[in-house]
Structures are given as C-alpha cells and as structure tokens.
Amino acid sequence: MHGTAERVGLAIALIAVAGAASAQIPPGLKVTKETLPSGGFHILIQTPNPPQSNGQEPAVPPSVTFTKAVNRHQVPVGGDVQYRFAITNDGPSDLHDVLMTDTALVQAIVAGRLEPFAELDGVELPPGASATIEITVFIPDPMMQSFFRATVDPLSPDQTFALTLTLRAGSPIGGTVSNQAALQLNCDELPCPNPVVGTSDDPDTPTSDDPTIITIISPFFAPAMAPLGLAGSAAGLLGLGTWRLRARRGMLRARR
C-alpha cells in the first residue's frame, strides 16, 4: 500500500514478514507466553515503553508505504516461509499509534495450512519509538478470535518499522495462503475505533495493493526443499505439544 492516510482499504491476514539478515530484536524486550485451554497460544512482546498516543491528529495526512513480503511463494509441506511486514512513513508529519493487523495468517494456522510454529527473527524499531506485538491463536475453535497485530509509536517521516516472522507450511498440498494486512492510525485503544487507511502490498509483483500469496507444494517436488521440511511435517502430525518462547542468538523463538 502506498497512499495517503485518508485512503480507506480493506483486509486482514496473519503473520508477518521477512526482514534483512541484520534485523535485530530491540534490547529489553518483555515477552510473555500463555498456552490457551483450546490448545492454542498467546504471545505478547513489548519494548520497555509501550506505545502511548499523544492524542493529536497530524496537521497534514502523511503518506505511508506498507508492504508484506515473503522469501518464497512456493513452500513445501513442513518447509519454512518468512514474512516481512514493513511500514514506512513517507511524511510530512509523524504517525502515532500505528496499528498493523493480519488475521488471515492466524486463521491459516487454525485451518492447518500453517503449522503452530513461529520464530520472531527480527524487529526493526526506529530510535525513540516503542512497540507492542501480540499473537493469539485459538485451536481449533473457530468461534474464538485469533489475531496477529503490532503497534508502534511514534513513526516519524522517513522512518520504517518492520518485523520478520518465520512460519511453517502445513497442508493440504495445493492449498494457498493469500491475504493482506490492514493499517490503522491513532489506535490508542483496542479494538481500534478508527477506519482502515490502507492494506499491505506484495512488493514482488508489479500490481499495486495486491495480496501476498504462498502456495503449499509437495516436499518431494520442491525446487529447494527446506532442511527440516520432512521432519517438520512429521512433527506437525504429532499435535501441538507444549509451546515455549526463549532467546537464542539474539533472536526470540516460539517453539513446541
């Protein structure tokens, strides 16, 4: 998405974005993990100072570039795919309490097209900004609201907030995960009462404002099989198991 904050879009999806290899987790990150009675999980990640609104609307609506990229569009069963969500303030004024929501990806986990596995590989946080990242997945209860969302405040002109998340492909072969993430501004409360101002764009395609799509393929015919693809598929058949979130090599990992 590339447009003014006045633009109203539509969308939701789920998890997010592959970043540069140099992407780092900000120091002092607070992480809480909860296993839900439904068999799902809830992960809350916050920087030392969670976003707080200044209660002011920008004098001039800023222009925003919002992308959702993947490192590959064809993913073998049990293979990993990285999503990178990036929000860039193109100016001319600050953005506050910027909320990104992507529910389709969590819905894909509930449906089995993505496995209940996630690695937060990096958070690119501008100087002076703070962020909250929250992932909640209810399995297999479709009546419960699963969601993925991230809030950053402030985001000054020419600054980018991005996060990189790795997910694992489930089944069936030939299935797709197609979605866009939604963007809202001045969300100092949840649920955010403000309208969606735009949706994510897949930067790998020439089309503007299009969804990011991956297709699940057979691990036996994958052009480049993931090293742990087959093992990941077998592990996926054993059920959810117990989730844990731990720090490793400067990265946070949520695993069974």
Can you put this structure into words, describing what you see?
The protein is mainly beta. The chain has one domain (2-219): Sandwich (Immunoglobulin-like), CATH 2.60.40. Helices cover 7% and strands 39% of the residues. The chain has two helices and 17 strands. It has a seven-stranded antiparallel sheet with strand order 1-4-6-11-8-17-16. A hairpin with a 2-residue loop joins strand 16 and strand 17 (251-255). The longest helix has 9 residues, at 103-111. The two termini are 34 Å apart.
Backbone CA Rg: 17 Å
Question: In terms of structural class, how would the helical and strand content be classed?
Answer: mainly beta
Main sheet makeup: 7 strands, antiparallel
What letter string, H or E per element, gives the SSE order? EEEEEEEHEEEEEEEEHEE
Condensed summary:
With 256 residues, the protein is mainly β. Helices cover 7% and strands 39% of the residues.
Give a quick set of tags describing it:
256 residues, mainly beta, Immunoglobulin-like, seven-stranded antiparallel sheet, 2 helices, 7% helix, globular, disordered N terminus, disordered C terminus
What's the structural blueprint in terms of helices and strands?
Blueprint: E1 2-4, E2 30-35, E3 41-46, E4 63-70, E5 74-76, E6 80-89, E7 98-101, H1 103-111, E8 114-124, E9 130-137, E10 147-153, E11 160-169, E12 176-179, E13 182-184, E14 198-199, E15 212-217, H2 229-237, E16 244-248, E17 251-255
Parallel strand pairs: 5-15
Antiparallel strand pairs: 1-4, 2-3, 3-9, 4-6, 6-11, 7-10, 7-13, 8-11, 8-17, 9-10, 12-15, 13-14, 16-17
